[in-house]
Amino acid sequence: MSTGKKISVLNAYFIILLSLGITNHVILLPLLLQTAKRDAWVGVLLTMLLLMIWVYSLCFIMKRTNQQSIFPWFRERYGAVVGWLFLIVSTFYFFLMALIMVRETSTWIKVTYLPHTPKVVVLIALVLLCIFVAFNGIRSIAIISGILLPFVWILGHFVAVANLQYKDYSLLTPLFTEGYKPMLKSMIVAGGGFLELIVLIFIQHHMSRRISYLSVSILAAVLAGLTLGPLMGAIANFGFEAAMQLRYPAYDQWMLVSITKYITHLDFFALYQWLSGSLIRISLFLFIITDMIPFKNQKRRLPFLFVLGAALIGLTLNSAVDKQIELFILGKYSVVSFTFLAALTIIIAFSTILKVQCKR
């Protein structure tokens, strides 16, 4: 695996926008609508403002760790037990996030585009591609992101403009008809997605230079915009009552797009957007897992990636696990994600302040 080559900060941001943006579109949007209905967009806006404070903590951690690989940093500073505990917890989190995305992507493709194709075929094709990209290293992920993101961005603006004729932004108001509590709950949902920016800490040692607070703040604002735009678009297109019933509001906005009466059914562009984000997200998380594990022989990385891939496929095909993932996403996902990532940020930040040095 090519782990020695560095990527630019811009490359890293392309990766982040694709890998985190897909989650905000696929998972966060329906949760936000179900949690706060019409007030959800205000919750996202307020969360974005608070996010700028959290971004300072992120930059503080990267400065204090001198942008080193985070697992060796923990192991050298606090010993093998603490280091391996951190690695195990982090590995479980990234594997779970990859599993959720594999499940969501394969299920969506099966339901919308390939109903007669066995799900296992879709899974094998998706996972093998992600393993190939992850094995080739962070530079491969960065290059692919740089190719895919511009078209994803253009298509996102295209669907927004194409649906202007159907949008009624007066549906965004009145606000707080049920009080402020739903909006406050939606901030936790949005926060769980935005705090995934902590991924930067796990790839910081692959960046050619240190990132600044301003650049991360801009990245956070763009990421919030990727959530706010389709969220407001869904409410303006469908009304909050209908929008909150949709499983994939961002995809359903593509169903409305037409160019004159002769060009319709442009929703296949959503497939490109979704697969682009899924490919980068799953590949990135598989790469981070194998990048953290200190293999004595680098050739063992590929077999280990195949083991991870087989686990992803097997768990996704298991009907009991599939049902539990669905219930988790629609239930406790946002709270668990927010709590875990907030706690992880605090633990890492606090660890950088302690004056401890333990080589073994």
UniProtKB/TrEMBL annotation:
One of its GO terms (biological process) is spore germination. The chain crosses the membrane at residues 12-34, 40-61, 81-100, 120-138, 147-166, 186-203, 215-240, 271-290, 302-321, 333-354. It is found in: Membrane. Keywords: Germination, Membrane, Transmembrane, Transmembrane helix, Transport. InterPro entries: Spore_GerAB (IPR004761). GO terms for cellular component: membrane. Belongs to the amino acid-polyamine-organocation (APC) superfamily. Spore germination protein (SGP) (TC 2.A.3.9) family. PANTHER family: SPORE GERMINATION PROTEIN A2. This is Spore gernimation protein. It comes from Tumebacillus algifaecis.
